[in-house]
Model the fold of this input.
Amino acid sequence: MTATTAEAATRVRKSFRPSWVDLFLWAIRIGAIVIIAWGLIGSILNFAAGRGLSATQWRDLIVAALSQGAMYGLLALGYSMVYGVLGFINFAHGEVFMSGAMVGFIAANWLFDAGIWAANPILSLFIVLVVAMLTSTLVAILVERVAYRKLRGAPRLIPLITSIGVSFFLQYTFAALFGVAVRSYPQVPESFRGALNIGGFRIAWSSVLVIVVAILSMIGLWYFVTRTKSGQAMRAVAEDKEIAALMGIDVDRTIVTVFAVGGAMAGVAALMWAILFRGVNFFTGFLPGIKAFTSAVLGGIGNLVGAMGGGVLLGLFEGVGPLLILGGLGIPGVSQLKDVVAFTALVLVLVFRPSGIFGERLGSEDRV
Amino acid sequence: MTAATVDAAAPRTARFDVRRLLRYGGLAGLAMVFVAATGMLETFNNRLLIRPILSMGYLILLSAPFVMGYLVGKRTEIEGVETAPRTSADVVLAIVAGLIAGLITALFAALVDTFPGLRGTFPRMGPQMVSLLTFDRGVGIGFLILPAVAAVLGALGVAMHWLSDRLRKALGVGALTVVSTAIFESVVKDVFDWFSTLPRFLYHTAGGLSVVSAIVLFVVAAGASFFLQGRKVPGLGSLTSADTGERRRSSLIAAAVVLVLTIVLPQLLGGVLNELLTNVGLFLLMGLGLNIVVGYAGLLDLGYVAFFAVGAYTMALLTSPLSAVPFQLNWWQAFPIVLLMAALAGVFVGTPVIRMRGDYLAIVTLGFGEIVRYLFLSDWLSPFFGGAQGVRRIPGIPVGSNEIGGSDITQFVYFTLFFVAIAAYISWRLQDSRIGRAWAAMREDEDIAEAVGIDTVKAKLLAFVTGAVLASFAGALFAAKVGTVFAHSFEIIVSIIILVVVIVGGMGNIAGVAVGALVLIGVLGGPNQPGLLQEFGEYKLLVYGALLIFMMLQKPEGLLPSARRARELHQEEYLQDAWLDKEGRFVGQEQEA
Done:
């Protein structure tokens, strides 16, 4: 934050005489809380009266939301790492994810045509995963090399604007290459279509798969960041680039690593998207990207565990929120408003809790 | 910079450098493959610049090896020290790199030719593309033409550096004149309707310049540039000159020319071009508004389209007989209410973000923009806003007994330009006013601005409100022009395109924004509106994205920068240059690599 001291000073002054800006913000806060509470009560009353969704439906909704949240979490890691190290929002990360999903689609389609998809589903999914991860990693590294490297040390908004340019460039390049039509991944193999029974809970296999993959990736990432030399270098660079360079760390290479790891996680998220939604086109990355950024802020930007937590929270909020809150208020056409809820969450988080729930971990330059 | 580093580097670059060769050749090849694979070559091939020899598609494709050659020979001067002198090795390198680029592209064409199944996934990679890449000469010998052409163009590109500066500039002016005359074909035809000999001489009947006229144009323009260069045209100074008196004089002249053009031009142009001019005007209005928010106050607003939407919807609701509002006003009565609503929206969006850091502010405004659009679109609010159908039957602007709407486009242009003039006047007056200086101070350093007694809360809100009001001008005009307002017109891409207009033109500079709007919206087109190059349609946004990246990397201050802004953006570079070696790397990094 640019104005810690000045802000602290203002806060002291404002605590005696709240300005109208504070009053406005408090009005929004209270309004939001009232609306949420009202919606919740409405939903509970509906539920008690046996209207609306049944308990099983709610549970399925929550599981679906959790798996979607896990996907947001993996994407959020990319935003969080780049922000932690370079201090700017890599707006194009959603497109890195999209490129993985699109190229993964080619692989899946090929596997399907060759009959491998049906014969050996686990292997097929693994191949798609590898292809998606490689593509996303490659795109992320290329973008860093071409667009961002020259901008180190530029004012914060310049790389942000550049990344918006990158985002649209990638989107419409893919639109031109692949056409704008939505392409569908082949059906998930037969054996995954059923549901798993855990202690009386029936959970769809695909959700289980997504959540397991997310957990495995998180463990891998945690190991990489905390236990390997490259991970250590990453943390050092995030803390202070200049001093890290003085300690003999190759800052350029470390930053490439950051983009590569973020890209790889986006590739994993691309596979999850394929399992959960199947349809991909050039615009696939845009909304998930913005939602993942929200998750990253929600979990405290720069904080990797927080990013995952933020993703799951946002997934829950987005998946359950419209029905629970807006449905409780009696608003029609709730599913249409899914993205409104997500964007409202974005605005509320950034306005009221920009440091996130779990706290930010930023480098020294960004903290000042 | 020490003498030792200069000497050490000199022999290295003078030698024939294989890495450099592969880099340049590979990049140019990739660029050519990109143009072909995205279908640009095929689509733009329908637009002939010089009939029958040069189409837009080939121009784009073949500019890659030429630019590559030019870059091979380019020498940068840092801190007064020039890099190694050009040698014949550069020429060889450019030719071979061109050859490599052509070979890569030919290889790509061969690949597409052998695997017709690719077309299932990549709809653009078909026989049409292959035949264009082989110049219709069949698959065998055709593959050799492209490498040869690319090598020649690479050589031409590098040869540019052996010409005198004066001649090179003249050739550039000549080429630019030919290409822009070809692009502005419909404008020239409309304007010279009363003197049709000129367009008939210039253009082929089927469109595009004729070969003869292209040569004549080139010679005339290049010759004029060659002989006039360095000579001062009396009374005409530079717009970017450091001398304030001169700058003032030249901007007055420019303003007079623009004024005369705005009065005369709509009369001469036909309906299609007046429509285009109206679109340019609407985007210019929004650009001027965003310029205040981003250029003056330094607040990156990515949801600017929301204010445009508020303006358009308010106007629609108040004037349409089909809206949910029980009473019905005419355009002029509704206008003050539109402004008021936009100002309120500005306060509503501006207040929560006041204490936010710049990049978060950008994302929150983006969020606001999308929320507004989704709400206008939703079934929930459709009783008011009409959902996906939108609000229909919006009347035009009543003047006397007439109503001027989208069908009376010639009169409508004047309205748009009138509001553009108002917006430009407001921007110009605000620039150096008390609040304008407060914005500049706040943009450069918020803490210090606050410390010297600037009320940053008020300054930021004022920026948002002014920007919102200018966007609502555009919204109100837009509603009257199209007659139907629906949420599809207010997608986020509109905000981004306005941002590109402001950035390409030059942040903080009114003339820059005007140039940006004319060039981008006029030639490439807006999000849903075609420009002069209608063929750009599907590639418009790709080009806008690329432009944004290019501008940020090469020229963040824009084509016509405001003097102050350029200084801010380049200050750091001047300081940094002291630490760079000749290839732009940090001096200390060489040992590590």
In short: The first strand of chain A starts at residue 183 and ends at 184. The domain at 39-352 of chain A is CATH 1.10.3470 (ABC transporter involved in vitamin B12 uptake, BtuC). The mean pLDDT of chain A is 86. Chain A has one domain: 39-352.
